[in-house]
Amino acid sequence: MAANIFLYTLFSLLISFGSFFLLRTTTAHFTRRRRRLPPGNFGLPFIGETLQLISAYKTENPEPFIDDRVSKFGSLFTTHVFGEPTVFSADPEMNRLILQNEGKLFESSYPGSISNLLGRHSLLLMRGSLHKRMHSLTMSFANSSIMKDHLLMDIDRLVRLNMESWTGRVLLLDEAKKITFYLTVKQLMSFDPCEWTQNLMKEYMLVIEGFFSVPLRIFSPTYRRAIQARTKVAEALSLVVRERRKESERGERKNDMLGALLDEDGNGGGFSDEEIVDFLLALLVAGYDTTSTIMTLAVKFLTETPLALSQLKEEQDEIRARKGEKEALTWEDYKSMPFTQCVVNETLRIANIISGVFRRAITDVNMKGYTIPKGWKVFASLRAVHLNQEYFKDARSFNPWRWQINNNTPGATSPLNVFTPFGGGPRRCPGYELARVELSVFLHHIVTRFSWLPAEQDKLVFFPTTRTQKRCPIIVQSRVVSGPCKEV
Q1: For 216-225, 292-301, 468-477, which range has the lowest pLDDT when averaged over its residues?
Q2: Quick one: which of 75, 156, 198, 441 has the most CB atoms within 10 Å?
Q3: Distance between CA 344 and CA 339 in Å, rounded?
Q4: pLDDT per residue over 139-170, tens digit each?
Q5: What pLDDT, in 10s, does the model give residues 339-362?
Q6: Is the link from the previous residue into 373 a cis peptide, with omega within 30 of 0?
Q7: Residues contacting 361, CB < 8 A, separation 6+
Q8: Alpha-carbon gap, residue 327 to 311, rounded angstroms
Q9: Is 447 helix (H, G, I), strand (E, B) or coil?
């Protein structure tokens, strides 16, 4: 009897969803005729083309879903994914319009799974004056002056500390995640690596796995685990916030992001514990998962391009030769890495961990002869532009020399301004320079301290985010003999 009731209820829900989708599809059909939507397909009832999108990105092609539809419909096309009609853009001009018109024509809007896991007070979901205020506060903790004065020292120290344990077979992605997570926790809350940070990282990895799952606990074990892990992470951060609030009331203050959020006399004061926890949780995403993957992929690409690896080693060995064995890198050292920056740019271009950004139209938007209706989602694909042969010669090949000065190949100085690995406009990633510094320091230490070979064949996968299938296993061997790092 109970089973029959469940089946009847499920069947009724499917009928309701199907009817709802058909109504929206019919409405969209007449809207298309009246307003001239970009061409495309809405796919199946309710689920649209979501399954096609997910299955496509399990191939070795970095942009299979977009490539296929661009070839059929052009660089602006209509689809239906994650429960909503969505216009995809692989056009740099349209992408700039989307990025630059935050709060005017478009507003931030992400799938329910991401929104629920990050929390309603995360920087990614903030809008208006509050977003502007918090974005500015975040940038103030990742600007050149702050990095030069003390962040660079922390980055150098924590990279060294992690690499001391490297021997034999190393899962590079796992080690890179440790480095970036510990760096982010240090920057946000002044914690050095310890048992608490290790436990927090384990739960946090489960949260990230749920970002691109169906946001229904009953249908998705991944999402269910992510929600449970999110609760544990929030509880752990809440304890820290409460303790630091007590310290702040006693007049004690640390020079970190949490200290700024608790500073009642500064620009960051007046936030509730829940708001601070959501904000910290989202910043951990921004500083942890993306940068660690870029580190891993830089090593993978260099391993597959021996000439680039040799030139990088030569540049970094020259810097290390001027310093003591354990002497930390300085800001001047960082600024004397021209080829390293070419490697960073090319890794960011090809890997593009953030493949694009979601927005919602807050008014009817006319562009290139089409109309995007008010309320519709748009997805500005940054990676599709970066991998377009029209803007980058041999776009899907790793070629760091394309970024060298006086090279006529399109690059960062392209008049079309098509290189946007950190987004753009008011929501440009506030930690863009910090990510570049972290990657540069990481590359310095790995090439000056180790030689390595792939432990086994690995390949890239592109869903839910870009990463290596087997976490990039390598066999490392020390290039120089060094004692254990005593710094903590």
Answers
A1: 216-225
A2: 441
A3: 9
A4: 888 888 888 888 999 999 999 999 999 999 99
A5: 999 999 999 999 877 789 999 999
A6: no
A7: 105, 106, 372, 373, 374, 375, 376, 377, 378
A8: 23
A9: helix
